[in-house]
Design goal:
The protein contains 4 helices and 4 strands. It is α+β, with helices and mostly antiparallel strands and 127 residues long. It has a two-stranded antiparallel sheet with strand order 1-4. It has a two-stranded antiparallel sheet with strand order 2-3. Helix 3 runs antiparallel to helix 4.
C-alpha cells in the first residue's frame, strides 16, 4: 500500500464512514498545493497537524511532536471545491486526474457531513 492522505474527525458521525483512498491525493500533493496557491485557497497539507521541535521545550533535538490541531470543515470545503472546479475544467492539470477527483469527491462528502454535524477535522498521512 502506498502513502495516503486521510481524514480524521474529532468525533464519530453516526452513519458516516470517513474512509477515503487518499493515495492519488498524496502522490499529487505538491502539484495540488501549487494549484491551491494559484486558486487562492488554503493548500490541503495546511489542514494537517504541524510538527514542533521538542527541543524548544526541553525534549530531545531529534524528537518531533505533532500538535493536535482541529479545523472547521468550511475552509476545507472551500479548498476541495476550488480544486474540483479547476480539475473539472482542466482534467489534464494533474496526472491521474480521475483518481485525484475521486479522492477529492470523497473528501467533499465527509466534510459536508462534518459541517452539518459541527464536527472538526484534520488531514493525516498514512505512510
Amino acid at each position: 500500500m502506498s502513502a495516503a492522505y486521510f481524514i480524521v474527525l474529532e468525533k464519530d458521525i453516526p452513519g458516516i464512514d470517513p474512509y477515503v483512498n487518499g493515495e492519488a491525493l498524496f502522490r499529487s500533493a505538491v502539484k495540488l498545493d501549487r494549484l491551491a496557491g494559484r486558486l487562492s485557497v488554503k493548500p490541503l497539507r495546511k489542514f494537517s497537524p504541524e510538527e514542533e521541535d521538542a527541543s524548544e521545550w526541553g525534549g530531545s533535538q531529534q524528537t518531533k511532536v505533532v500538535a493536535a490541531e482541529w479545523f472547521d470543515p468550511e475552509p476545507g470545503l472551500v479548498t476541495v471545491d476550488a480544486l474540483l472546479r479547476h480539475l473539472g475544467e482542466a482534467p489534464a492539470a494533474i496526472h491521474n486526474g480521475d483518481e485525484v477527483v475521486a479522492d477529492l469527491e470523497d473528501f467533499r462528502r465527509i466534510l459536508i457531513s462534518a459541517k452539518k454535524s459541527h464536527v472538526r477535522w484534520r488531514l493525516e498521512v498514512d505512510l
